[in-house]
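Sharing a chain and its predicted structure for anyone who wants a worked example. Both blocks are below, sequence first, tokens second.
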Amino acid sequence: MSFNAADDVVTGAEGQRASASPLAGSFGTELAGASILIVDDEPGMRNFLNKTLKGSCARVDVTGDTEEASAFLDKNNYDVVVLDNIMPKQSGLEWLTAQQRIGLHSDVILMTAYADLDTAIAAIRAGASDFLLKPFRSNQILNAISQSLSRIRLRRQNSVLRHELETGSDLLRQRDALLGSSDAIEAARQSIRMAAAIEAHVVIRGEVGSGKQVAARMLHTYSPRRANPFVWLQCYGLTEQEFRSRLFGHIGHGKDDGETDEEGMLRNAAGGTLFLEDVDQLDASCQNVLMELLSTGRYRPVGAERSFPLNIRLICSSARALQDSVHNKQFRADLFYLLNVHEIILPPLRERSEDVLDLVGFFREELALRMGIKAPDLSSAERRKLLAYDWPGNVMELRNTVERALIQGGFEQALDGAADHDTETLATVEQRHILRVLDACGGNRAEAARRLGVARKTIDRKCQSWGL
């Protein structure tokens, strides 16, 4: 027998079979997390769609009235709207056109019992992503929704990847792990794992090049939001208009920047993580925008009349203590208290010099593979030079030095011009002095011990702890 919407409504037992989980399960796991709004004035069709989708999707709301449908959109985010075209007060196409003007982030599947070319063209122009002719089988609506969800996922992934390419992101710098075996970096990793288990806002503090974005990605990877996007925005130099545009996106005529995604970063990061890099560099007007966003939990795209619920985990980074910026009247105190629920401090490389050679080994192998060359061996003298330098640019400078060394064929030239810096611990001063004496002695540990007035075993023990 033929199976259609009317059959499912009339015969309850068949209706139960129509919505059985094996059928929905064949359309992938995306359905399980989907939020669907059904808009149809026919009770039978609403009942059929509700039965088909209710047990398979995270949320299904049903209405027979376009005004109530608008109210649903004002309160909630929906991935897909399943919309009937012929309704008494307002046609589906008229309602859809109006919703697009005021702001609609959902994919729309238009249903109609009267299909013709003009209606199909009008549906596309109004913004519908798919078109279903009534009557249809339950597997057809499940397939249409599944395809819409796939399009949404691919669109957001493309937007995130495009942003990575536009900003020149280097995948070697964006790994989801902080390398090293020192106590200092292990404490930072432990703090990240602790923060990942909670939903509170996080501020990652560290010097330039210390790996704040890597730490943020690592936190995202450990968190329950890891299956959803990680999106980041560099805050330095943004005007209020640019800040709003990139975060909130544009609706219709409001889109005037070819590099800005229409849906905005908050939409692309939905369910995932937004990383605001150098949040201390936001000017006062942008701080006001961020404060309003976090206080209300909603955002309004540029040119839209409707606001949308916020669904992201926020991570911020700063090269200096935000509290100092508050004291200097450069950062809003209330925003600081809102953001700084959990602070992660990344140690500078000079305070974990035992990690230098591990990092050099990682970058040397990865970059050599990328460049298609053989990684040169490190001499003892080059190891000493790497350990003797205090790396004011931290891991970023170390990585660039390794890349330069590979291009030049060795570390000797790449390390030329390394300057001394004043910010040193006593242990760092001791290490640097011993290594310089060793270098002056050509690596002769006995002669270095004699010049330093210490036992040879002391030099051996120190070198072993430094990986020499």
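Comments welcome. The chain has 22 helices and twelve strands.
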